[in-house]
Amino acid sequence: MTTTEFRYCIVSTKQLAEIMRIERASYPEPWKEKEMRQLLTAPEYFGVGAFAGMQLVGYAIWASHDTKIILHNIAVDPEYRRQGVGRGIVEWLRQKVLQTTRRKWIEIVVSELNLAALCFFRATGFRAVWTMKNHFKDQRDAYLMTWRRPRNS
User: In what order do the strands lie in the sheet with 142-148?
Assistant: First the structure.
């Protein structure tokens, strides 16, 4: 088994086709391209990509606020799952939190039915802090999960 090193950097609409390829392979109800374009061009939203060489293999879309980062979406190419790509993206976002004393946490809303995401975020240090009843259009519940910066940092 070969070990691939991944590079993490900001992505934009230049990578939209690759982002949408990963999005469609990752979710039964993927975001629409128009919605993703709107997020990537809005001033308060950002994207980070994980690259294997020149190929985008994972991404996250987040909004930066004074005291927190809200993670809106994260996905990894199915061929690159379980190779540390998602963990690398989460670690990259943690470093964004730690760069300023103002930011205290990262949060994400996860469907109660998305067991893989619930397990992933729990394994990367997130905790469910709130149950959001009937959060989705189909009345599914969701969990608000957060990672908080250590008190001594």
Answer: 7-11, 45-52, 55-64, 68-76, 105-111, 142-148, 127-132
Q: How far is CA 34 from CA 22, 31, 81, 96, 128, in A?
A: 15, 8, 26, 27, 30
DSSP string, 54-81: TEEEEEEEEEE-SSEEEEEEEEE-GGGT
Q: Are 47 and 12 in contact (CB under 8 A)?
A: yes
The answer to whether residues 76 and 90 touch, using CB atoms and an 8 Å cutoff, is: no
What contacts 153, CB < 8 A, 6 or more positions away?
98
pTM of the model: 0.89
pLDDT tens, position by position, 10-46: 999 999 999 999 999 999 889 999 999 999 999 999 9
CB count within 10 Å of CB 120 equals: 18
Q: Tell me the angle at which helices 16-26 and 33-41 cross, rounded to the nearest 10 degrees.
A: 130
CB distance 117 to 129 below 8 Å: no
Report phi then psi at 54, rounded to 5: -100, 0
